[in-house]
Amino acid sequence: MAQDEVMNVEEVADLLGFHPEYVREMARTGRIPGVKVGRKWRFVREQVIDWLKAGAPVQPRRLID
Fold it and tell me: Is 44 strand, coil or helix?
């Protein structure tokens, strides 16, 4: 059985085209599947892809106007 690929905030941000701080905010508020390990967020790639397919937001909120 292949092991699930674990991604960090920067990798998820790059995959989704979001700013890393937006990914952190989404993880903190439970809007994207992730787990905090110590002080770092970790994400399983397959879960992020499933989340996106299920209708995740496609337009990230702007952090700075």
Answer: strand
Threshold 0.85, pTM exceeds: no
Residues 25-57 as b/e (b if ≥16 CB within 10 A, e otherwise) read bbbeeeebebeeeeeebbbbeeebeebeeeeee
Give 40's Cβ-side CA count (13 Å radius): 9
pLDDT digits (tens, 9 = 90+) for 5-45: 999 999 999 999 999 999 999 999 999 999 999 999 999 99
Query: In degrees rounded to 5, what are phi and psi of residue 10?
Result: -65, -40
